[in-house]
Amino acid sequence: MIDLRLESVRRQATRVRSGGLEALAALVDPARAVLVCDLEVRRLHGAKFPPCPVIEVARGEEGKSFASYVSVMESFSKFTVDRGWTVVAVGGGAVLDLAGFAAATWLRGVDAVFVPSTLLAMVDASVGGKNGLDLGGRKNQVGAFRPPREVLVDVSLLDTLSDAEFVSGMAEALKHGVIEGGDHFAFLEGLGAGRRSGTPRPGGAALGELVGRSLACKARYVEADPFEELPAEAPLSRRVLNLGHTIGHALESAAGLRHGHAVAAGLASICRFQASRGAFPTGDAERIARLLASFGLPASVAEAAALAGSDDGPAFRSRVADALAADKKRDGSDVLVALPCAIGAVRVGRVELAELSRFVMEAP
Fold first, then answer.
1. Are 132 and 140 in contact (CB under 8 A)?
2. Least enclosed by CB within 10 Å: which of 33, 223, 321, 342?
3. H helices within 112-258, ranges in order?
4. Which residues pair with 197 in a beta bridge?
5. For the whole prediction, is pTM greater than 0.70?
6. How far apart (Å, rounded) are the C-alpha atoms in residues 37 and 28?
7. Does 327 score more than 60 pLDDT?
């Protein structure tokens, strides 16, 4: 059973709870709500939606565009959405990002309720208050911090996910295990062993525990640092949650991979980068790579290239290195990177962009 309350966000607390889509009726007034989803989610789950207007948007990253944003805002105007309304977003992370940004900017902010329909959205995008749009092929270049009022976690929605979508979400869940270490990482290794023995994905209580552990991990950092204002070296700096994302986002931009698959390769790569500097145990780096591989996730830049159907040559590596230079966390010639020191120990530090780019050009 998932029941969290994030207290420290300035405007309001965010309640995260378990429940089916039917529970939306108790969370919003259908006469003063508008629901945002993509066509596939509406086809699969629309029968359970509350009786309110529905805005359909493009699926995936295509929906996080300014064109989609303008279309949503025009629909808000058509439905005469006012400050007493609630925007309900049902879907994956891209839909939550788009709808959350629209809610944050319509009339300078209206309430939102999120119902994540993918594992990636459940363990990552639904909690934290980050909303945004892509621009010029770069992820989340325009955005705002505004948390939803409620997050409704319905793990039964994951039954309709493809294996590729489910595995993509596992990357963020595995990242949380690397951050926390201990029992959390051991739990994930147990799931990986089960997958190798023929269990394709966790279900029942194990799936609920997987989602609950990730949400609890992320909630600790979000509560302590809701707007990424703590110094990078602070123990609960929210930037720690970017583990794997510096190289991961570059791979996502350069290769067009699913977010989770790119983060998985980025996670394995930053561990090897640290190991190459003598700052991370080589055995731990390989342990993490094996865990990623047990879920069918890429565990290197080369594997990411192969998954994208790209030749892993200098041209591909150069595109990845160029994408690093556009990272939002760049500061002059440096970039702020979440750096693993051991399983269960991650810090944020400055890395010279040139050093990281050289590693990307030569990494496995």
1. yes
2. 342
3. 119-120, 163-180, 182-196, 204-224, 245-255
4. none
5. yes
6. 16
7. yes
